[in-house]
């Protein structure tokens, strides 16, 4: 029989009534006494982790077992699957008040047969799989790895394309969760993939051929896993982690099924970042979806911000556009309203953009030239103490890029887009620019138009003005 330790505390709570006249407290009935809240408990015959609790008094009784479960009645059962110390509280209610008693219960061993919890079963395979369940990165799925702002619910900034991180050390990792002893087995395949900010913590780390860093690593034995906060987070013990390493070992469960798991986690170097990873059960093959016939269209695209446009831009988390008074109504652009494009200052702002998602795949064989007007204020110029750096930043700030993307192939990944740039542009005047995509006319998968002003690799933000965006006839 398991060791059971208990201590008793009891508290009486009297109801207090504030009125204009005195009332006789005795009319409320008897107040529970110490004997009314006394209770006993013992292991049941069926299982030492299932305890029988009893209290002899005939009043209303509410039990709190200290493990998230409760019960009501004179004789109740409490189930304690996991080893640990629990504080059990009995509260007795009468018309005259209430009183509580607490006793501590120590459970000596975890009994996995009692852990019939949905999140445990999905993560480990449950009692029917004592060997546990092994998970791997869903490398074939576009978007299996990505980045977004901390408050996001998905990888808004970046999504890896299918197998994009081959050779990084990410795809040969295996993660096994066992219900027994909450064991976690991390098979690294000899190496791991990590954020550059973690490289100094791993001897032998070196730049990966697909970006960031890889390092040789063998995970320690006897790792453990736990699920906390109402089954919303998975935590791995020290030395263990899941997927691309950013210095943390706690992961928010976004979705979890028997075959698929989608996790969100943070970065202890870049605290504004949220990383995302998709995993599948080892051996699982996604059902092959029927190939839908492609729907090709060529439709007008135009926006002049004076109320004559046929679409509205979608802001990304670091770039935005709003209707604004024309800062320079000169003959090249006499419109009263234009678009004010704001690029955020700080980490992540270098990828700021505005987007036009389409509901169809573009047919750019006959119409493939975009035109727009842009006004780049000179106050966006960035200066540093180094003249070479200063000139580089000035050049990049005087840049406009139009990109065509396929949202099915990983969002912002460079391999999924066509791009035409105009660089070295003049400042403080309206410019009319064209972007010719005839070099990509064999591509038939574009369904998103992205405009980026100010260039990438620039963290200093900026304000620009945009007008008369259109796809030429």
UniProtKB/TrEMBL annotation:
Keywords: Signal. Residues 1-22 form the signal peptide. The keyword DNA damage does not apply. The keyword Electron transport does not apply. Residues 63-114 form the PKD domain. It holds the Pfam family PKD_4. Transmembrane segments: none annotated. It comes from the Bacteria. SUPFAM superfamilies: PKD domain (SSF49299). This is PKD domain-containing protein. It comes from Chryseolinea serpens.
């Amino acid at each position: 029989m398991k060791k059971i330790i208990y201590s008793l505390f009891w508290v009486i709570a009297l109801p207090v009534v504030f009125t204009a006249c005195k009332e006789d407290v005795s009319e409320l009935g008897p107040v529970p006494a110490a004997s009314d809240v006394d209770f006993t408990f013992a292991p049941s015959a069926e299982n030492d982790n299932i305890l029988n609790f009893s209290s002899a008094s005939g009043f209303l009784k509410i039990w709190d077992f200290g493990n998230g479960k409760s019960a009501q009645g004179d004789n109740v059962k409490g189930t304690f699957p996991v080893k640990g110390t629990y504080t059990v509280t009995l509260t007795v209610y009468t018309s005259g008040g209430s009183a509580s008693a607490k006793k501590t219960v120590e459970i000596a061993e975890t009994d996995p047969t009692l852990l019939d919890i949905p999140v445990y079963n999905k993560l480990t395979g449950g009692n029917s799989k004592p060997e546990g369940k092994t998970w791997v990165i869903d490398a074939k799925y576009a978007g299996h790895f990505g980045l977004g702002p901390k408050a996001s619910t998905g990888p808004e900034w970046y999504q890896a394309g299918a197998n994009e991180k081959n050779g990084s050390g990410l795809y040969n990792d295996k993660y096994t969760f066992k219900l027994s002893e909450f064991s976690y087995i991390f098979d690294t395949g000899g190496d791991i993939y990590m954020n550059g900010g973690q490289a100094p913590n791993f001897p032998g780390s070196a730049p990966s051929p697909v970006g960031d860093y890889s390092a040789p690593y063998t995970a320690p034995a006897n790792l453990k896993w736990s699920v906390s906060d109402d089954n919303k987070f998975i935590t791995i013990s020290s030395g263990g982690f899941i997927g691309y390493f950013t210095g943390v070992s706690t992961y928010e469960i976004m979705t979890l099924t028997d075959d698929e798991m989608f996790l969100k986690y943070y970065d202890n170097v870049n605290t504004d970042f949220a990383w995302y990873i998709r995993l599948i059960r080892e051996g699982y093959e996604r059902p092959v979806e029927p190939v839908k016939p492609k729907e090709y269209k060529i439709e007008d695209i135009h926006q002049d911000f004076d109320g004559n446009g046929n679409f509205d831009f979608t802001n990304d988390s670091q770039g935005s556009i709003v209707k604004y008074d024309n800062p320079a109504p000169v003959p090249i652009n006499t419109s009263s309203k234009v678009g004010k494009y704001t690029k955020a200052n700080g980490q992540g702002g270098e990828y700021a953009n505005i987007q036009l998602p389409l509901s169809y795949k573009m047919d750019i064989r006959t119409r493939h030239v975009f035109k727009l007007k842009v006004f780049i204020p000179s106050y966006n110029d960035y200066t540093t103490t180094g003249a070479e750096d200063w000139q580089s930043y000035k050049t990049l700030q005087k840049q406009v890029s139009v990109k065509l993307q396929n949202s099915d192939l990983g969002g912002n990944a460079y391999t999924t887009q066509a791009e035409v740039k105009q660089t070295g542009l003049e400042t403080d005047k309206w410019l009319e620019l064209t972007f010719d995509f005839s070099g990509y006319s064999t591509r038939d998968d574009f369904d998103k138009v992205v405009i980026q002003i100010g260039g990438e690799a620039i963290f200093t933000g900026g304000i620009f003005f945009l007008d008369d965006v259109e796809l030429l006839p």
